[in-house]
Design brief:
This protein has 186 residues and is an alpha+beta fold. It folds into 3 domains: 9-39, no CATH class; 43-110, no CATH class; 133-183, Arc Repressor Mutant, subunit A (Orthogonal Bundle), CATH 1.10.10. The protein has helices spanning 31-57, 67-73, 78-87, 104-110, 139-146, 150-159, 175-183, and strands spanning 9-11, 18-20, 64-66, 92-94, 100-103, 136-138, 165-167, 170-174. The longest helix is centred in the N-terminal third of the chain and has 27 residues, at 31-57. The radius of gyration is 27 Å and the shape is flat. The structure holds zinc ion (ZN). Zinc ion binds at residues 12, 14-15, 17, 28-30, 33.
Length: 186
């Protein structure tokens, strides 16, 4: 980003010190603060990911779940949850030492679920394509149908890893993929 011709002051997002920004995307007063903020962000992400994995592993049919699982599924900190259990805000049952179980229904009422999808990517099933000419467009047909030049089509085919097949002088690309690609850009 180019240097700004004007002086803009901002509060450092980490230490709160007011500083003169060098570029529009500077949010920290110094390298030390920006490094520390980055490390903090990474730690948070790692923790959220760990929680998401625990949350995902809890069977949907389990009516009673542990404190650890509750923390992973719902946006509540462990300390706060224990406090609420002690105060009786959240009903609990003890099935043994350190084996507190909570009813999901009570938790649903009290908390909002953490977003899991942000941290665990559902692995999509590998797509099967038909590269038979009747299921494909040639590059020329794509240009004509969508009014795009062939170098753009090629760039998109490469960018989105769309499979292609050459037969004689023609390159065939699955219709389905191309239609999805260009329709969604409207
Ligand atoms: Zn700072």
């Amino acid at each position: 980003m180019p240097n700004l011709g004007l002086e803009i002051k901002r509060k450092c997002r980490l230490c709160g010190k007011v500083f003169l920004i060098k570029t529009l995307d500077s949010y920290y007063c110094c390298k030390k603060c920006s490094d520390a903020a980055y490390a903090k962000k990474k730690r948070t992400e790692a923790r959220e990911k760990k929680l998401a994995l625990i949350a995902k592993s809890v069977p949907k049919v389990s009516e009673f779940i542990s404190v650890r699982e509750a923390v992973a599924i719902y946006g509540v900190e462990r300390g706060m949850l224990y406090l609420m259990i002690r105060r009786g805000d959240i009903p609990s049952i003890n099935i043994g030492t350190k084996m507190t179980r909570l009813n999901r229904k009570d938790l649903e009422k009290a908390f909002v679920k953490r977003p899991i999808a942000k941290y665990i990517k559902e692995t999509p099933l590998p797509k099967k394509y038909s590269l038979e000419p009747e299921d494909c467009y040639t590059i020329g047909e794509i240009c004509e149908k969508y009014h795009i030049n062939d170098s753009s089509v090629w760039a998109h085919v490469r960018k989105y890893s769309i499979p292609s097949r050459q037969i004689g002088n023609y390159v065939y690309v699955p219709k389905e993929e191309i239609d999805n690609l260009y329709k969604s850009e409207e």
